[in-house]
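Section 5.1 Outputs to date
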Amino acid sequence: MLAWGVPRLRDLPWRDTRDPWRVLVSEVMLQQTQAQRVIPKWEAFCAAFPTPRACAAAPLGEVLRRWHGLGYPRRARDLHLTAGAIATVHRGRVPDVLDALLALPGVGPYTARAVLAFAYERDVAVVDTNVARVLARTAGERLTAVTAQRRADGCVPEGHGWVWNQAVMDLGASVCRPTPRCDNCPLAATCAWNRAGRPQPDPAVGSAGVSTRQAPYAGSDRQARGELLRVLTAGPVRRDGYRDDIVASLLDDGLVIEHAGELTLP
């Protein structure tokens, strides 16, 4: 796996840093967003907020402005809250303990382990959609999240956690795709699903609880929320003309504030 993966690692800017804050920002941005869209946003965000304290000191509205274009703005809100927790509870240092990372707002099992593996170079496994596909197909069966994590943890070679995780993620992203390219896979000879002739159903579908499709964006409430937030990045607007349920959802999420019928970013 390493012999195949090391020469083929994708050139992604967050792979050149071990700064835990920058790694954390990249992992939050990469949730449900393609890497090529993230690159310019990550670079600009890290330039504006180079430390958790810098992010925590900024108004949420400024964080949302920097975030706009990535979608799922609750991630930006949670990252802002996380920066505040790091700045106060952890004295400005991103934790290097799993339980402390999991206690941060919006940080789940994948993101916490990604920080440990990619910033602190711990020998822990990360399981995202791409990794879950590889695990399920090589096992030849659909896996629960617990089973997938256990199998992934057992595969990490001692002292090589950083590069191992990057290589397996790249394998899932470039070869073990939803439509697989098994002829180019270094694991084809030992992959249970491939050896069985790739029968249906594909064990990767729904495996580990991460391989799920997003609902269509066009015409969705996500699109309507995103459009209102886009307008607000330029300045306040009157509430009139925007759907009440969309405004209410953004107010409930703390992503906009209202005063005298006027909406603004926080």
